[in-house]
Amino acid sequence: MQTLSTEDLLTELAFRLNQNRTADVQLRIQSLEEEVYRLGKLLREAENGKSQFLSNVRNEVNNPLAAIIGLAASITGLTSEEKIRHMSMLVEKQAADLNFQMCNIIKAAEIEAGELVKNPSLADIESLIQSQLQRLRHRIENAGVSIEVTIEDQLTFRTDANILEIICINLIANAIEYCGRQKIVMVAARRHMRLLRISVRDFGTGIEPQVHAELFQRFQQGETGLRKSHAGHGLGLCLVKELVTQLDGRVEIHSTPGQGTMINIFIPELEAGICDSQLSFGNELLFTDGEAF
Amino acid sequence: MRISPKVILIEHFLYPSAIFASYEPARVQTILGSCVAVCLYDTLLGVGGINHFMLPCWTGQGMPSPKYGDIAIKKLIEKMSAFGSLKQNIVAKIFGGAEQLGRADGSYNIGSRNVSVAENILAAEGISIVARSTGGVTGRNIVFYTHSNKVLVKALKST
Asked: Domain coordinates of chain A in residue numbers?
């Protein structure tokens, strides 16, 4: 057997250590490459989403606007009261649609700019939901959907009513859009422990479980491009999730293909004027003495 | 530091994921746990702004909102630029980033990651950090005066 000198041993050791290090570096490079690939994919998706959104805006904002302008122009030339009433109704319908879409886009822009302000107030949930149904009445009539509303008696809740309105109108509009042949949408609201639970359910086509997470992504719809058969920007559910998160709540989705979809939201009560509450700066019980920076 | 003689007209409570910047003197309050707030102040114009972000970086999920440090700091700098601020006149103060111990949801180290994102982005933008109160294990209640760059910090008492 060959005896190794100390020098040989050291050389061998250095060689093996070096090999290890090379392997480590290679692994690191591999994982970085994977990360670059993942980020590149996200970037491509974002670019895609943006162009889809822009072409969507062209169709879905421009068309109602063109209709409004055209209808308004022809109303001025009409004398028959009945025709005027009919045309005005069409204008109102198109304007309501446009308003709904613009509200979503503006809210999304507010969130992205960090300018969403929360104004807690005591909201009457029944009238809040009824007024959203009123805003959606043209869609409801068009689709021939019957809406079943179940709301706990005298349900009031301290929250930002405007944010909750946008959450509700989007959930209901989605359910109307995707309710399929079973033209029923169920809206329910009640207190669940100390949370407000609102659930909106349809019995339409449902959604495959593997795409549930994607639903909350911006500009995602079941179908896109030329095959797209549903209106909207694919902003609704993403906005719902962001707004619910802003209210410290959570969204749950239960959906089975062929059986329909139920979306539940749970939100806690908003502190009334947090500035003046127990968290106020001068509170000696909760905070130590101040320090200036 | 220029102390503005103007009276504070605006009182604002800054919620997480929001940004506030004002040309008029304002008093902004926010409460931080593992979140981080970056206060930017233009020493020449005497105007300031503050953000409050919860997570280090946007990963492409959900909206690119100021909930994420990378977005929140960029947007705040944009807002300052809209006031006419130049980066070389802007200084920063950073607060928060406490570690909430015993969190089992895999969000370990969120506080220090938030702080390091703030440090890295500010360094990359060439904005120096002139004061800070970061890390530790207790939350902070801070008040920022946008016109004087004064920040009062109170630590939440540990219970």
From this structure: 61-113, 121-275
